[in-house]
Amino acid sequence: MKAEETRFLWLIIFFDLPVRTKIQRRQAAQFRNFLRDDGFIMLQYSVYVRVGRGQDSLDKHLRRVRTALPKEGSVRALQVTDKQYGRMEIMLGLAKKTEGIGTKQMVLL
Question: Is 16 annotated as a binding residue?
Answer without folding.
Answer: yes
